[in-house]
Amino acid sequence: MISKGEDPGDVRTDVPYQLITILSNLYPWMTDGKKIAVVTRKCDEKALAEFFKRGYFARDRVIQIGLACNREQIRQCRCSDPVPSVVDIGEPHGGLDTDALSEKLMAMSSEERLRFWEYQFRKCNKCFACTTNCPVCFCDECVLEERTFVPERGVPPGMSFHMIRAYHLSDKCIECGECERSCPAGIPLLTLRKLVARDFKEMYGFSPGDEKTVSPLLTTLEGESLDGDECDEC
Amino acid sequence: MEMNAMNVKHVLTTCPYCGTGCNFYLQVVEDKLISVVPCKTDEISRGQLCIKGYNAHAFVQHPDRLKTPLAREHGELRQISWEDALDRLAKEIRRIKEKYGPDSIAFLASAKCTNEENYLFQKLARAVVHTNNVDHCARLCHASTVTGLLYSFGSGAMTNTIPEFGDADFILITGSNTLEAHPIIGSHMLRALDKGAKIVVVDPRDTPLSRLAHIRLSQKPGSDIAWINGMIKVIIDEGLVNEEFVRTRTSEFDKLKEVVMGYTLEMVESIAGVKGKDLSKAARLYAKADRAMVAYAMGVTQHSNGTDIVMALANLAMVTGHLGKESTGLNPLRGQCNVQGSCDSGGLPNLFPGYQRVDDEQVRAKFEQAWGVELPEKPGLTLTCAIKEAALGKLKAMIVFGENVMLSDPDLTHVEEALKELELLAVVDIFPTETTKLAHIVLPAACYAEKDGTFTNTDRAVRLLRKAVDPPGEAMPDWKIACELAKRLGAKGFDFSSPAEIMDEMAKVTPIYGGIDHGRIDRELIRWPCPTKEHKGTRILHAQKFTKGLGTFAPVHHSPPAESPSEEYPFILTTGRNLFQYHTGTMTRRSPKLEREAPEPYAEVNNGDAKRLGISEGDRIMVSSKRGSITLLARVTERIIPGSVFIPFHYAEAAANRLTNAALDPVSKIPELKVCAARIQKG
C-alpha cells in the first residue's frame, strides 16, 4: 500500500503505454464489479471522461490516481494540457502553447500543405495501429473496416482513410498522441489531430475530454416532430 | 503484470509471422488470448507492429486447431491416443529403415518452430535415424543466399541490423516488397526516407515502397545479373571503385572486371529493359553514398541461377566497400519468423548446427562425441530433391514438422504424386492443411503462443518466445513430440525438461551460439555470432575481415530463366506475398481481420495486356502453364510490367504453385518460383 505523499519506491509511474486502451480491452472481462484503480495522466483522465459520458465504463468503479507528467514527457508528447485535475504523483508542469509542425503547416500554401499530407499518407501501410491503440476508438463497427469507404487490400489505403478517421474523432480525440507514436510510417498524426481540434474549437467552442459537455455533433430531439423542410428527394 | 482479482497476463513474446522478429505482449484474460499490445522497449519494433502482428492472437484459439493425434484407417483420418500414435510412427520408421535403409527417410524441419525444436529434429534425423536427410522451407526462400554468401563472404546472413536502415543515407532494395512482406523493416526504411535518404527500388512490380522511391527500375523477371553487372561496370568506368577495400579485403577482382566489362548500358537495356540513364544514376548514388545499404529477398533468390544473382549483389557491395560498417552491408530479408534460426540450428542436409559441414571429419567427430553415436557423412537430400526422389519411389517416408508442402512447393501436381508414393507421411502441425490431407499420421502441435523457446530473426537476434496459454486439447509442443519419438526409437540424449535445457546443449556444439542461454536473452538483445558468455554478440558482420578472410568476387554471367515465354505461354508468371496473408494461409486465413482484407485469390495483369485480351478488372480468368491451370480474379493494374503476371501463393483454391516450375538452381537447389511461362485466358 502506498499512501499519498509516500515514495512509491520501485513502482514505475512513467510507463509509456496507453493505459486506457489496455483497460478498455480488459473492461468487458471485469465482471466482478470491483473497483479499478488507474494511474491517470491528463490525457487518460480525458479519455475516461469520454467513456463515462457514453456509459461505456461505470463511473463509480474507476478510481483515478492523478499523475503529472514531467517536462521531458510533455515535450515528447507536444502536450498543451498536461496537468490532471488532482495531482497524486509528480510535480505539475505547464503545457506547450505551440506545436512547431502545426505552425509550419499553417504557414504553407494550401497546395504545399496538400502535398505534405499526400506524401505522409502514401507511406501508410494499413496496420490499423492508429485505431487499435487509440483510447477513444471504441465503435463496435469501424467504418474504416467497411469496403464502401476503404477498399480491401489497398496499400496505401488512400487519403479518405485518414480523413474519415480525423473527422470521426473530432469530438472525442484527447490528443494523447498514441496514434502518432505507434505509426510505423511516421505520419505526424498528432499534428493532424491538433489541427482538426483547433478548427473544431473555433467553430463549435468545444474540446473533447470533459465529462460535463456534450458533443455539438450530437443532437437531442425532445418532443419535436421529425417532419421538416429537409430534402425529401431521397 | 498479474492481478489477483482476475487472471490477467501480459506475456512478452516474439511474432510468429515474418523474419523481422518484432516483440509484443500477448494480452491474456482467464487463459483466453484477447489482444496484442506492442512492446515499446523493443529495439526492433519500437512499439510498432504491422496488421499481421496486431492480429497474431487471432488464430491461436481457433476451433479448427488440431487437438488429438490422427491416423489414417480405411482412407479416413481417425482420432487415436498419443501412445498409439507415437508407437505406430516409431514402428513404421523402424520398419522402413530396416527394409530400405536410413536414407529412405527424410525429415522436414520447420521455420515456424523454435531453434530448440529444429535442433532436436536434425538430431533425431542424424543421431537416431542415421540420415542427413533433413531440410526445411529455407530451401524455397533463401537457400541461394546461404550458398551464395557463404562463397562470397563466408556467412550467409544479414550483414547488418534492422534498426540501421533508419540511419542509412542510401538504400537499394531489390526483389523485396518490403512494406508488405517485412512491414516493420520497411518502417525503418521510411524513417531514413523522412530524413532525406535516397531510395532505389529495382523490381518488376510496382510496390508500396517503389512508389516512394527516388529511382525505380523495372527489370524483366530473370534479368538480374544483367543490371547488377551493368551497375558494377558503371562504378568501374566512372572511377568509383573503393580501391582500398578491394585491395585489402577481397580477391579475384580482375576476374570480375573481365566479366562485367561486357555489360554495356545498351546490352543491359536489351536484356533487362532497364534504362541506362537511370541505372547509371543509381550506380553513382550507391557508390558515392556514405552509409549505403542493400536489401533483397525472394525476387533475387528464387531463380534457377539464384546463387549467381546473390553473388552478383555481393560483388556490387564489395566493389563499393559498403560493408562492415554502420548502416551498410548486404542484407537478405528472411521471410519466416525462424527461418534464420532453423538454418542456424542445422535443419539443412549438409550442415550441422552453426553451419558446420557434415562431410568435415573433425566436425563430425565433435558431434559424434557430443551425441555418443556414429553419424552419417554423406550430405542428405534437399527438400526439393526429396520430393523428386519420392516420386521415383526411392524415398519411402517423410516426417514433416510444421510445413505445408502441398501449397508452398513448386509444381504441386508433381508434389502430390510424390507424396502419394510414400509409404509413410507423418505431419506435425497446428491446423489441418493441404498436406495433412495426404498424411498417414497427423500429430497436433502447440503454436508459438503455447510454448517457450527461441526464434532467430533475420538480423541474427535470438529472441525468446514465452508461453502465454496452454495448447488446445491434447496438442503438445514439437520439442516434446521429437523427444517422445526419439525415445521410442531407442535413443538416448532426448531427456530434456525444458527448451532452455535444449538451448544449453545446442550452445555447447554451436560456436556462433556459444554464449547464448535463455537467462541472458531474457535480459539483453543478442545477435550471433556470440561465442562466449562474456561476448555481447555481433551487430555488424565482416567488420575487420570477412568471416572467410578475404571476400571473393565471383564472376557471374546473365543466363536466361529455365523457362522463357513462348507462343503458347507468352507471359512471365511471378509469385509472391501480399500484406494481409501469410504463406499458405493456415494462420492468416483464420484471422478474421486479415482475411477480410484479402479474401480471394487474384492475378495482377498489366492494363495494356488486359485490354488486348479483353479482360476487365474483376473478370474471372484462367492462368495456365505447362503444369496446370487455375481460375481466379483479374486485377488490372499498371503495377506490373507488360508481359508479366503476378499471383500471390497464399490461396489453396487457386494455388499459384500449381503453375510454377520446379527447375532448380544447381548449387542451392532452390526452385525458380519467380519465373515461369504462362498463358492467360478470359474465364
Q: Would you mind describing this structure in some detail?
A:
The complex is a heterodimer of chains A (234) and B (683). Chain A is mainly alpha-helical and 234 residues long. Chain A has 2 domains: 19-77, no CATH class; 100-204. Chain A has 9 helices and 2 strands, in the order H-E-H-E-H-H-H-H-H-H-H. In chain A, strand 1, helix 2 and strand 2 form a beta-alpha-beta unit. Chain A is globular, with a radius of gyration of 20 Å. By secondary structure, chain B is α/β, with parallel strands linked by helices. In chain B, a hairpin with a 2-residue loop joins strand 2 (23-29) and strand 3 (32-38). The N and C termini of chain B lie far apart (56 Å). At the A-B interface, helix 1 of A face strand 3, helix 1, helix 7 and helix 23 of B.
SSE layout:
The complex is a heterodimer of chains A (234) and B (683).
Chain A: H1 19-26, E1 36-40, H2 42-53, E2 62-66, H3 71-77, H4 100-106, H5 110-122, H6 129-132, H7 159-168, H8 178-181, H9 189-204
Parallel strand pairs in A: 1-2
Chain B: E1 8-14, E2 23-29, E3 32-38, H1 51-54, E4 70-73, E5 76-79, H2 82-100, E6 105-108, H3 115-129, E7 134-135, H4 138-141, H5 143-152, E8 170-174, H6 178-181, H7 183-194, E9 198-202, E10 215-217, H8 224-237, H9 243-249, E11 250-251, H10 253-260, H11 265-272, H12 276-288, E12 292-296, H13 298-301, H14 306-320, E13 330-332, H15 339-344, E14 351-352, E15 356-357, H16 361-371, H17 383-391, E16 397-401, H18 405-408, H19 412-421, E17 424-429, E18 441-444, E19 453-456, E20 462-465, H20 478-488, H21 499-509, H22 518-523, E21 551-552, E22 571-576, H23 592-597, E23 602-606, H24 607-613, E24 620-625, E25 628-637, E26 644-648, E27 676-682
Parallel strand pairs in B: 6-7, 6-16, 8-9, 8-12, 9-10, 11-21, 12-13, 16-17, 17-18, 22-26, 23-25
Antiparallel strand pairs in B: 1-2, 2-3, 4-5, 4-18, 14-15, 19-20, 22-27, 23-26, 24-25, 24-27
